[in-house]
Amino acid sequence: MKKEKFNIIQDSCIPLPLENVDTDQIVPARFLKATTREGFGENLFRDWRFDEQGNKIESFVLNDPTYSGRILVAGKNFGSGSSREHAAWAIADYGFRVVVSSFFADIHKNNELNNFVLPVVVTEQFLKELFDSIYANPRTEVIVNLPEQTITNTATGKSETFEINAYKKHCLMNGLDDIDYLLSNKDKIESWEAAR
Amino acid sequence: MNTLFDKIWDSHIVHKVEDGPTQLYIDRLYCHEVTSPQAFDDLRSRGIKCLRPDRIYCMPDHNIPTLDQDKPIEEPVSRNQVETLTRNAHEFGLTHFGMKHPKNGIIHVVGPELGLTLPGMTIVCGDSHTSTHGAMGAIAFGIGTSEVGMVLASQCILQQKPKSMRITVDGELGKGVTAKDVALYIISKMTTSGATGYFVEYAGSAIRSMSMESRLTLCNLSIEMGARGGMVAPDEITFEYIKGREYAPQGEEWEKAVAYWKTLPSEPDAVFDKEIVFDAADIEPRVTYGTNPGMGIGISEAVPAVETMPEAGQASYIKSLEYMGFAPGEKLEGHPIDYVFIGSCTNGRIEDFRAFAEIVKGHKKADNVVAWIVPGSWNVYRQIEEEGLAAIFTEAGFELRQPGCSACLAMNEDKIPAGKYAVSTSNRNFEGRQGPGARTILASPYVAAAAAITGTITDPRKFL
User: Fold this and answer.
1) Is B313 on the interface with A (CB under 8 A)?
2) I need a surface site. Which of A106, B12, B48, B367 has the fewest CB within 10 A?
3) Could you say which of B17, B160, B192 has the minimum Cβ distance to residue A80?
4) In this structure, is residue A175 part of a structural domain?
5) For position B370, which CATH number holds?
């Protein structure tokens, strides 16, 4: 798993205007049997991307060459359901660095952050306009600025700020993970146990 | 004025990261084979061991076949995942209930039934239905694999404190209305994201009068409205359930534990960020008609019209109904079905099989139905046999299978074929959840039993 440091990303987007996209759709359970983190991108949105014979379903957005980019733009309540981190691995492995939605499910949001994919929560209005911009011009780019915590739709020029806790922002910008941090607190863990 | 949640959370804070999450101590980590291998790798790549191996319990459940468990798993990737857990548990010195072990079963069934899950605990597992354990008065929630790695390494997790919500259900549940129906009712009112960001405490007379196993079913489904977890304050029903279980405190320790557990319930003046109240009398046996657990109706009701949905959600709604093959305005009662599945961490406990038996006793399985009866654990399996339920099932034309997650998510051979309708006591009706193209109708064990003997979606109350 690459821990690619995060700063500012400007890219075009792939639109997925469905709501409640659950992690069973992001990666179906029958593909969860691997014991490593690699290769899940092949099965990202597997049953929407390929038919039973393994042929591409041309109408699905990931198979449509009109759209490309490292930013996935999805409808409300993205990543609901199963806690499978494989969903975040699939998104990262496919090449996405950012997922934009008006609402994320909790566990999946944490999983994205732990895999250096940035979930950006925007208002319903911003999301609707962004879909409109992308459909009007598939080359529409979005600028995601993590240091400033802003997202900009370059077609409309509109920006919004987004939230992320200072600790996680620091981790993303510096390529750090939580195990390192927790183990550096071992004395605190032991004194907590002793005082119990 | 503390809540149940606050009391447990606050007593487990090891450290608060400045402008960041809380470092929370975890009493119990459960590991299954699907979401743990990469976490063990994280420890190996750092050359470290588990900080507190005695707090960690491993058992495979997702890939386990429900027939011939005495033979090796046929599918090589499933077998490899299960064997990887065995190896990891051994290498890291963790307790492991492997396939066919008398204590093996679905983690969320086994934890409570062995007394491993106790009130006041913090419990995590790489599985969203970890919310189940909250029914015992614990903080229990699902986590990702990177987080499993954190807990393996440090017995701690970094988490933002969620907001608090109390859902009160007052009144008496009607005939044939179970905890599953209560949960499906609540989720349909809340939507699948209505409790995201919250930890829910269930309260009210309808909850207080529920058995322990019913509360487990209710809390199990908390995640389906987006809540990280659900919990019920421990009371005499909780203590009675735990007493004498294998890993429960004994003797003097028991007295001390109960005295502590009695201090846990939310104070009368506790303040929640959100309060929701429902009336038990409004709930009838339920079924889902769509592709998320919030898309549910009472069994006498019809599929809602497209226009009743918010505009931004209409495309998803239409896609969902097309997948299910249902039309707006259609009533589901009487609709033919092909499969029935009873089991899972939602409804795989002894009470669920008693309920199923109550209806099928003296009837025959419908010829057009394939039914899978899958206990949640070997303990439940043995109890089904000892109580004579197995004989009732056989007499009615059903076959009792061996325990595991089974058709709930179809990681083993138990897959519903494309286009077929399954009335399932499990927790998710997502597209393809029970097999590619499968059409899932979530329901209680009563509704599943009525469907199994009639071959159609049927109101179970006529059999009770």
Assistant:
1) yes
2) B367
3) B192
4) yes
5) 3.30.499.10
